[in-house]
Design brief:
Helix content is about 35%, strand content about 25%. It is of the alpha+beta class and about 270 residues long. The strands form three sheets. It has a seven-stranded mixed β-sheet, sandwiched between helices. The protein has a five-stranded mixed β-sheet with strand order 11-10-12-14-13, sandwiched between helices. A two-stranded antiparallel ribbon has the order 1-2.
């Protein structure tokens, strides 16, 4: 895939999101999946539209969507010779359903086990984050560049999802915060992108799935940011097993964040 494919992909994602999401915003009807997460009509309609459109424009590439069944997801990972689309049709479903304007559509193309293209679109703000491996990341038409040095972890704003962290780590951060302030907004793909755009300084999440982070991970990486799991491994892996993620845009700040979290090699 070449960078011009990214512009084409962005246009398709924007068209579908702008058509399908606004009429369904703040519609509280939905069902609970087996893992307890919420699924709404919007999730299903957008996934169906994205799947049909991607198959039409890029036939032969497998599809892995959040709203597919587990057997379907596992089957998709067995047919990745030409790549696989990782789709989260509505990242931040709980926010969307109750009228909180922090949600997005997330699409990533993974080839040879590596993210190649990424689009994360926020229709509420009309912000399209996108990236192509080796070619950079953008917010709409503005290039996302590496961060200016952040003074210290103590002065940082952190995005931290406490609910999914190991209990001991969550307790330590809550009792003695190493940063200036903390937020949790509830949409993983946008969290990665807001970090890439410099809207926060450090990030921590204990359990996110492939479709949650695949696109945002590439956006941050192409913007110059860094990320590891709490075990010191690369966050990205083409597997259904949830991953932890600690990240920062500024490399020096990331070293401080790793040390604070006691990540191996930090």
């Amino acid at each position: 895939m070449l960078p011009h494919d990214l512009q084409h992909l962005s246009s398709l994602v924007i068209e579908i999101a702008d058509r399908e999401l606004p009429p369904r915003f703040n519609c509280r009807r939905g069902e609970r999946k087996s893992d307890g997460s919420l699924v709404t009509e919007a999730d299903l309609v957008v996934q169906q539209a994205l799947s049909a459109t991607l198959k039409q424009h890029w036939p032969g590439i497998a599809l892995l969507g959040e709203e597919m069944s587990r057997p379907q997801q596992q089957a998709a990972l067995q047919h990745t010779a030409d790549g696989v689309w990782c789709i989260d049709p509505l990242d931040g479903t709980s926010n969307f359903a109750i009228g909180v304007p922090y949600y997005a559509v997330s699409v990533a193309l993974v080839q040879d086990g590596v993210p190649r293209l990424a689009v994360v679109y926020d229709p509420n703000r009309r912000e399209c984050f996108r990236a192509a491996q080796g070619h950079g990341a953008w917010l709409n038409d503005e290039r996302l560049l590496p961060a200016h040095p952040t003074a210290s972890l103590r002065e940082s704003l952190a995005l931290v999802d406490f609910k999914r962290l190991p209990e001991a780590l969550a307790g330590r951060l809550a009792a003695s915060p190493p940063y200036k302030s903390q937020r949790s907004f509830g949409a993983v793909a946008l969290d990665w992108c807001w970090l890439a755009a410099g809207r926060c300084h450090v990030y921590l999440h204990g359990r996110q799935k492939l479709w949650d982070y695949a696109a945002g991970y590439l956006v941050l990486h192409e913007a110059g940011g860094q990320a590891l799991t709490l075990e010191g491994e690369d966050v990205f892996t083409l597997a259904l097993t949830p991953r932890s993620a600690a990240a920062a845009l500024d490399p020096k700040l990331f070293e401080q964040w790793k040390a604070c979290l006691e990540i191996p090699g930090g």
